[in-house]
Specification:
Distance between the termini: 30 Å
Bound molecules: alpha-L-fucopyranose
Structural class: alpha+beta
Number of strands: 38
Largest sheet: 9 strands, antiparallel
Strand content: 15-25%
Strand order of the largest sheet: 1-6-7-8-9-19-16-13-11
Radius of gyration: 28 Å
Helix content: 25-40%
Number of helices: 19
Length: 825
């Protein structure tokens, strides 16, 4: 739909190198990541490999915990919440997760440069390339960095527009104890044989390498208060081995070994650095290899393969693979009249925006950046994106850079399906299967329950028990339940029943089995969770004490209601498990319902407690509005209104103040179909919580806000629920002109739309399913293939039901063309 129109620029660019990490530019292939600083005399790539974590598989279950479950439940039933909390804090918590680790740093020092002119560095989202260009003594130098998924490597190319001008040294360091080895001296007359597409790798002496090997910490102990004298522990023969290898291929010039583990290249026309890494990770349940040999061999193998292709082919293969995913969704806002703000460097553009200037192109950039980051940190076969995606420079990262499953990990994947990156969702879906395995023992030993349970923190070892610390965050056995929503969502987008039967349903069923055992009878015979928290929030007890523990938090009840409903539907579809299905139904009917509190708000706890922090950043009780679908402005208007009031109260008390929390607001207001409010929080996020490299700030960096923003922008343009697609449900006034293509809806729909004067002009819906029906909804009149949409007298707006048939597929390939119509009043 974008044919013939000028595409808005999709690059981040700057006129100076990054001084700090939050200014550097990320590249990633799902497994390997780098932050590119773009220094002039010294280029710095801070490196990551996604399996490099501290620790090893350790039993985390607390055999003692179950002793306290009944006493705690009794205290709660007696209204002694604070005592219950104290008992949990003392006896029912666990230990913290291990920490995601930095790998190392690649340094390329460029010698022989004079005065520098015309410096620029950029990240081109379209091609997935970070680049630096500058001029010195009449020579134009260029560096390009890519992280290639098809070839499993990173590649840095240094070129100049005059021959023999590149003098550089290359070295690798690591924050971990390590050793390096540099290949022997070599001199190359005919450099072409080092980088040809036809070369046989076995002919090439492997003397141009730097290999750095080491081991990750055997443990990183939480040290929020800085009171642990040795929180990072390296023990002999424990801890995951890793290897990083770089091979430096110059064209022309000489290559010698430097004194400090560096490789020195003089007078080259071009230098290509191929880099890869491997670790001793062998699976979440297996001791990692602490010996580096296999990791080194893996690096050598990967680099041999890539070098045999040659730099040009590697680059082409990368770009092709990158564009195959990235190009699926195009978004433009502002129409042809938009001034091209991309003539301004991104940091200055952001500053201007923060002062109140409009810049729709920057909002588009934020949207597409989220897609870029998901592609960079989560690809089939990789680990899921953690709190920092894949990019972390600290041995002791904030919150261990782990998988925080009481909002953050899930938010990372909100954009995956709707933004047409379904394969990037896979690492999360795969992780759920692994957490279900560790979580089975947790359910049984901690709670005497069947099925599986996970709490709010998970790591590469799939720790599923409660963390240490305080019950308000650590005691939340419903993390796994929330994760299973992603399995069902994947089904709704694809309608793939084989996937549902083989992967999703067994895991959903296990989580539901836990829930049904976990529920107890509460007030008025309703089934409730007990003990229960509303993630990280606290209420005031009748004695005025701040407390997190009670029963039946709205979040818990919502998640369980949703999961049981999903299981019922799945069992129906798959024609399985009659008895289990009936149990799900009977349980669901007895769950404590939503309650509306004294302010008209959606109640967060089973009693209308006073909130300890009314502006708290979590809005867990609004899960049913987004990402859940139990609360809907048309189906449950009273609950939607109560949710709106809850949201208002949170904001009036300073809520939404951090990156991810603000990003959640965009999605919630999109579901309330309040486009201007949703847009206000797009603006707030960019103005208040965004670093110069457009990374989300939850100080320091946390990637969830980037992903939440991308999902929110999509949610403003298209909403799906089973059997219904709503077009432009929350279009803000500021986005009166625009077009989007490639968004995904439930039921295998791909949606493109063009609008002008805040009204839909044309939409194109293509279904990948064979048969089925879908209601298309839009707030104004429209027609589809000469059929007029009908007014919806009950809810307002216009609807049109479409039935897909085999015959229709033959004539139009299941594409529906929709046209916006004039209002006829
Ligand atoms: C949740 C949030 C914190 C932080 C952490 C990683 O616990 O409450 O703000 O984002 O995750």
């Amino acid at each position: 739909m974008t044919k013939g129109k000028r595409p808005q620029s999709l690059r981040l660019w700057y006129r100076q190198p990054a001084e700090v990490w939050e200014e550097a530019l990320p590249v990633g292939n799902g497994r390997l990541g780098a932050m590119v600083f773009g220094g002039i005399r010294e280029e710095h790539l801070q490196l990551n490999e996604d399996t490099l974590w501290s620790g090893f598989p350790r039993d985390g279950v607390q055999y003692d915990a179950l002793r306290y479950l009944q006493p705690v439940r009794k205290l709660i039933a007696d209204g002694k919440y604070k005592e219950a909390e104290q008992l949990i804090n003392a006896n029912m918590l666990g230990r913290d997760t291990e920490a995601y680790q930095p790998l190392g740093d690649l340094w390329i020092t460029q010698e022989g440069l004079g005065e520098i002119m015309h410096y620029e560095r950029e990240l081109d989202l379209l091609t997935g390339t970070a680049a630096v260009t500058f001029q010195s003594d009449g020579v134009r130098y260029t560096r390009e960095v890519i992280a290639s998924a098809p070839d499993g490597i990173m590649m840095v190319s240094l070129t100049a527009n005059k021959l023999g001008k590149i003098h550089a040294s290359v070295r690798i360091t690591s924050p971990h104890p390590c050793e390096d080895e540099v290949g022997e001296d070599a001199h190359f007359g005919d450099s072409s044989k080092w980088d040809s597409d036809n070369g046989d790798p076995s002919d090439k002496p492997i003397r141009d390498f730097i290999t750095l090997t080491g081991r990750a910490p055997s443990h990183v102990e939480s040290n929020y208060h800085g009171d642990h004298p040795q929180s990072v522990v390296y023990e002999n023969d424990l801890g995951m081995a890793f290897a990083v290898q770089a091979r430096v291929i110059p064209e022309g010039g000489t290559l010698t070994k430097g004194a400090d583990g560096a490789m020195i290249i003089s007078g080259a026309d071009k230098i290509t650095v191929y880099l890869t890494a491997a670790t001793g990770f062998r699976g979440f349940h297996v001791m990692p290899n602490s010996d580096v040999t296999e990791s080194v061999e893996a690096c050598q193998f990967t680099l041999d393969e890539a070098i045999s292709l040659g730099s040009e082919q590697v680059r082409q293969r990368h770009e092709q693979d990158h564009r195959k995913l990235f190009d699926r969704v195009a978004l433009e806002l502002g129409g042809d009249t938009l001034t091209d703000d991309s003539v301004l460097p991104t940091d200055l553009r952001l500053e201007r925006y923060q002062k109140g200037q409009a810049d729709l192109g920057l909002e588009v950039l934020l949207f597409q950046y989220g897609r870029y980051l998901l592609m960079g940190s989560s690809r089939p076969g990789s680990q899921p994106a953690n709190l920092q995606g894949i990019w972390n420079d600290r041995v002791h990262p904030p919150w261990n850079s782990n998988y925080t499953t009481n909002i953050n990990t899930q938010m990372n994947y909100w954009p995956a399906e709707v933004c047409n990156l379904a394969e990037c969702h896979e690492p999360l879906l795969h992780m759920i299967g692994e957490v279900a395995r560790t979580g089975r023992r947790v359910a049984s030993i901690h709670y005497g329950a069947q099925g599986w349970a996970a709490h709010h923190n998970v790591d590469v070892w799939r720790y599923a028990g409660p963390s240490g610390g305080h019950a308000s965050w650590a005691f939340w056995p419903l993390g796994g339940v929330w994760l299973t929503a992603h399995l069902w969502e994947r089904y709704l987008f694809t309608l793939d029943t084989a996937y549902l039967a083989e992967q999703a349903y067994p895991l959903m069923k296990g989580a539901a089995a836990f829930c049904m055992d976990w529920l107890v009878e509460g007030p008025e015979g309703w089934l409730v969770t007990s003990p229960s928290t509303s993630p990280e929030n606290k209420f005031k007890t009748p004695d005025g004490e701040e407390c997190s523990i009670s029963m039946g938090s709205t979040m818990d009840m919502t998640l369980i209601r949703e999961l049981l409903g999903n299981c019922i539907q799945a069992a129906d579809l798959l024609e399985l498990d009659d008895e289990f299905r009936t149990r799900c139904e009977e349980t669901r009917d007895r769950l404590m319902p939503y309650q509306i509190g004294r302010h008209g708000q959606l109640q967060e706890w089973f009693v209308d407690f006073e909130e300890a922090e009314p502006g708290h950043r979590h809005v867990s009780h609004l899960y049913g509005l987004y990402p859940g679908r139990q609360i809907h402005i048309r189906d449950t208007p009273e609950l939607a209104e109560a949710a709106r009031i809850s949201l208002r109260r949170r904001l009036d008390h300073g809520g939404g103040h951090t990156g991810w929390s603000c990003a959640w607001l965009i999605n919630l207001y999109a579901r309330l179909e309040d486009g201007d409010a949703a847009h206000r929080y797009v603006r707030t996020l960019l103005s208040r919580s965004t670093y110069p490299n457009l990374f989300d700030a939850h100080p320091p960096f946390q990637i969830d806000g980037n992903f939440g923003a991308t999902a929110g922008i999509a949610e403003m343009l298209l909403q799906s629920r089973p059997g219904e697609l709503t077009l432009l449900p929350a279009l803000p006034t500021a986005w009166s002109e625009g077009r989007v293509s490639g968004l995904k809806g439930h039921g295998g729909m791909t949606v493109g739309m063009e609008w002008s004067g805040s009204r839909l002009v044309r939409a194109e819906l293509t279904a990948s399913v064979q048969t089925g029906s879908c209601t298309i909804r839009y707030s104004h009149p429209f027609s589809a293939d000469a059929r007029q949409a009908l007014p919806d007298p009950e809810h307002g707006g216009f609807i049109l039901s479409w039935i897909f048939t085999k015959e229709q597929e033959i004539t139009n390939g299941h594409t529906i063309i929709i046209e916006g119509e004039e209002e006829t009043i």
